[in-house]
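Same chain as my last thread, 416 residues:
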Amino acid sequence: MGGKFTQILDKIFGKKEKNEEKQTEKTERNDKQADKNPEKSGGEKILYKELDARIKKIQEKDEAKLKEKADPLIDECLKCIENMKNIVEEIKTEKISNVPNKRAERMVQTNKTMFVKIMENVLNTKIDKDANISEIKAKILKIAQTCGETDIQYGRYVAAAHSQMENFRRNLKILANNAMDLNKMNVEQYEEHKNLDAQYAAYLNEKKRLAEIKNLLTDFESELHNNRENLKELENSEKFKLMNDAMNEQAKILVEKDRIETSVYSKISSIGRILKKIRKQNNIKEISLYIDNPKIFLERDAHELLNFLKLPADLNEEEQDKILTYEKDFSVIIVGEKKIYKEILEKEQKVNEDIRKFDVRDEMKKIRNNISDTETKIEENKKDAKRFEKSIQNLQKEISEIKEKLEDKLNVKIEM
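reply #2:
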């Protein structure tokens, strides 16, 4: 804000002579350097936790010295403000004169009214001399700026009718110059300290997060080890062996079942057309079971199909020979297969019971899923750990650089 004010004041009243400005800045720099740790010369060691109190103490001294140096300027500013208030009061009560016509008088009166209103408001700003230098100079800068802007906008009309404006502007120029001098008086804010606090807090937070991640990694790795041991124990268990044996037996049974079912299907399908003629001739619907699904034979009376084949039908010689061949093979092959099939079904039932009894597949699947999930978590946490380690390294570098600047400025050695 101060930069904006001084730019406006420079524009209104012009800059000070360069030599004067340089000398003032040089003096201020020397004064600040002298004010900073006058009792330190060898780089005293202080703890980081003591830093805030040390800087506040320095700033209090800086504030007191600046205030002492600024008091004459402040008094001069207050004097000018009081003079300007009195002049505005005179202008307010004095009648307008030296204007050529009524139109000009109305224009002067309009501008005078606005000029007086704004000036009375801003010049009555309360300034507490016991306040800190920053608050005082901000108010004085604001007064000088507002007065300068108001003079530019309305003052030329007021000056045309009131000679007191010349004296008003002399006081305003003195006020503006003093305000610019005040604006150069700053209490060192030690931005490095604020930055150091922020970066150190971030550093501690990142270290805390990294520690949490590493603890999680330890837990996950322990969990992974336990799950792998549990899986290995299951794979070596008696239950797992018995389940595998039962499943291997089941696979053999399914192959044999499929062989018999395919054989039966092939045999009965080969006489499908003959069966349809027999069904049509004798009107027996149950024959449809064998036509639609030949493997149904394995679930029904073994002699039922033979009895159907002995029924009269309009068969040609070739079809009759086929039935005779079928009947001849049936008792030897098909009926024998049916007996074997029944035994296989009994074995299958027993094997399925054993599989259910010894089945550990769901338990193993759950453990494998846990292993996979835990491995994913470990990889993610390792990536997070690397990211935080990199962040911590960067913060350590930044902290070191900021600390070094602050140590040079305070002439101390900071122990974190």
